[in-house]
Amino acid sequence: MMINKYFLFGLIVCLSTISLKFGTILAFIYALLSLKLTWKGDYKQIIFIIISIKLLWVISVFIGLSSKTIYSLLQFITPDAVLLLMLFISINKDNLDKFLLPFVGLFLIDLSFNLSIVMFGEDFFGRTGGFRPGDWLVRLGGIFDNTMFSIAIATIGVIIGILSRRRWLFILAIIELLINGSQRAPLILIIFTSGYILFKMKSRLILIFGTSFIFAAMVVLATFYTAYQTGYFDNEDVFITGNILRVVAWTNAIDSISLSNILFGNHNDFIQGNIEIPGMSVNTIRDYGIAESRYLQMTLDYGFIPAFLSYYVLYFITKRDIVIYYSDTNNDVYLARALMGFVLFTESFYGVLYGTYIIIFLFAIISLGYEERDVERKMDSAILGLEGIK
């Protein structure tokens, strides 16, 4: 019996997280050689043009001004490359379900590692998790021993649970987010809940995106408040918390951007080249120009234009997903991808979910690859601004 090519594609994407350097290339090669490439949807032209302009700008700045490595460039443009790839792939519900099966398997493995720490104090590799001041519970890193990656996998579980109507999967994913000690996990659940309520009320787009901006602003302000409460910024001798590091990174990035060319980024004040960045610390942030923010990092490395274009692409796709969901509120795929877009859009202002490799593939294939053409083509004129919800 032949293995379904979309199941194999999903398996390759999941396995490639073990080694992104080689796995990403393998996933792209398999998709280009094995999957049917097509071009449908006028909205895809807009996304293609915007991403192409961004990539051209980034590569030009990299060649002309940057001392970063080729590998760092590839890491930077991978999310855009995945979006471009999915513009040429069309997948139906049956094949989408097969593509998602390996993601479900990865989620269950990751959950088992975290539950092992909760119940027995260590995972199957003898790792015990971590704990920072301000954490409520032990930080759980899952199979990859990385807290944010484990949170990303749990987020995927929530999305697939909604999309496929697997209530048990949805509940387990919620549990994995709740037991993780990082404060980012409950924040994601709050965004999910807020988006669900707004969508079920068929709220106007201005209210949905306004909620997103306000929530992101509240998280940023709360981060500054808790960081300043430690006394670190009054030159007191205190333990360096995660929130202190974020505030240092954000303020350092903003100061560096204000003193550099906002169109092309800052390429003179930081250590660059083929080097291994040491563990996260205040000195590491300042020496290597780590921004701890997707849009600030883009502006710092390649200028304001790539950062704005990235923001607009995510906004455009999320807006389309919401409008499509409003056209058929009984469609679980439409609800799942609208919620995923809302979560990633909101979290992108202060977090790293959208930059996570495995999240990008899932987001791209359900938002750009999957389509029910009769409904979606009918709605595209509204999305392009000719009519529709405002």
Describe this structure in words.
This protein is mainly α and 390 residues long. It has one domain. Helix content is 67%, strand content 0%. It contains 16 helices and no strands. Helix 8 packs antiparallel against helix 9. The longest helix has 28 residues.
How would you concisely characterize the structure shown here?
The chain has about 400 residues and is mainly alpha-helical.
How many strand elements?
Answer: 0
Low-confidence runs of at least 5 consecutive residues: 386-390
Bulk shape: globular
Strand content: under 5%
Rounded mean pLDDT score: 86
Please, how many domains?
Answer: 1
Gyration radius, to the nearest Å?
Answer: 21 Å
Order of helices and strands: HHHHHHHHHHHHHHHH
Instruction: Count up the helices.
Output: 16
Mind sketching the topology for me?
Layout: H1 5-15, H2 20-34, H3 43-64, H4 70-87, H5 93-120, H6 147-163, H7 167-178, H8 184-200, H9 205-229, H10 242-258, H11 282-288, H12 294-302, H13 304-327, H14 332-347, H15 357-369, H16 373-383
Helix pairs in contact: 1-2, 1-5, 2-4, 3-4, 3-13, 4-15, 5-6, 5-7, 6-7, 6-14, 8-9, 8-14, 9-10, 9-14, 10-12, 12-13, 13-14, 13-16
